[in-house]
Amino acid sequence: MIQGHGDDSFRYEDIRMNFSSNIYAHADLGGLKPFLAMRMDVIAQYPEPDATSLAAVIAEKNAIPHDSVLVTNGAVEAIYLVAQMLAGEGIHHYMVSQPTFSEYEDACRMFGMEKGMGGACWICNPNNPTGTVTKRLPLETYKIVVVDQSYEDLTSAQLMTAAEAVKERNVIQIHSLTKTYAVPGLRVGYIIANEELIGRLRRWQRPWTVNALAVEAGKWLVENDIKVVPNLQAYLEEAQRLNRRLNQLPMVQALPTETNFMLARIENVTAAELKEYLACEHHMLIRDASNFPGLNEHYFRVSAQKPEENDALVEAIASFRQ
Questions:
Q1: Crossing angle, helix 307-318 and helix 271-282, to 10 degrees?
Q2: Do residues 219 and 291 both lie within one domain?
Q3: Which residues pair with 96 in a beta bridge?
């Protein structure tokens, strides 16, 4: 298991602006909370072993067969489940382009896979931590292409649809209700693939990995088509404005992004030092990105928030060691 993900606000006493998580920080969950309060009776009984009812709702929304969906305990369970199936079925090599989400490589190593061509290729799309989008997937090069689209609802770029994924013989598509609906504490994700691949994955999944309240929340969120970002285009434009403002700082280089978060580099000091300064002096939290393979101690990641918060972040970074 990888340590050091974002949103570690529990380490600090008074974080007021959280730029460290890629999840939209101002989501309105006012409708979900009273709904769950009325469904508390479900905790007195076992949930469905494989969250079948939520899988059916997801399948209907995407107009794909029910047997093409497998619900998981967040996207992270999906990642480790896929790696376990691949290794168990004799696929011993994987490829990951760095920097990207560390759990892909960790999961592959955990189940004895080694880096190499021809086996499985893992793609985060949009990519974490860079925010870039892969336009063309290498479907003809690998036995299995795993496409993690956890941030698909935080970009305007065109991505592979669920229906397109189901038609491919070697695509496993990972999704995150956690990211789409800003409910990281509930841990709900799902896998979409053709029915044969889902059947193979199902044989490796443990029962009851998704709790009853998470299932109820997932169904309510999907059925009601909740929009946690009121105006996605305006939000993405604000992310681009933040990117430009960061690049106006002489010691910071913010890299291009196609989503709400971005990777940046600071000169002469470390990201860890900047993070501690912002947290302790300005009550702001950023993501120290130095533990992403391929990055060094100068890289950090931020997720755009409200305009006034973004401006405050830029001003706070500008004041560091001035």
A1: 120
A2: no
A3: 122
- The pLDDT tens digits of the residues spanning 131-176 come to 999 999 999 999 999 999 999 999 999 999 999 999 999 999 999 9
CATH, residue 208: 3.40.640.10
Task: Report the length, in residues, of the chain.
Answer: 322
Q: What's the mean pLDDT in 89-109? A: 96
Q: Which residues are bridge partners to 148 per DSSP?
A: 124, 174
Judgement on whether residues 172 and 88 belong to the same structural domain of the protein:
yes
Burial of 44 (C-beta count, 10 Å sphere; 0-12/13-18/19+): exposed
User: Domain range spanning residue 16?
Assistant: 9-27+230-318
Q: What CATH number did the domain enclosing 268 receive?
A: 3.90.1150.10
24-56 pLDDT, tens digit each: 889 989 999 999 999 999 999 999 999 999 999
SS3 77: helix
Sheet containing 287-288: which strands, arranged edge to edge? 252-254, 261-266, 299-303, 287-288
CA angle 99, 100, 103 (to 5 degrees): 130
Query: Are 291 and 300 within 8 A, CB to CB?
Result: no
| pTM > 0.90 | yes
- Report the number of distinct structural domains present in the chain: 2
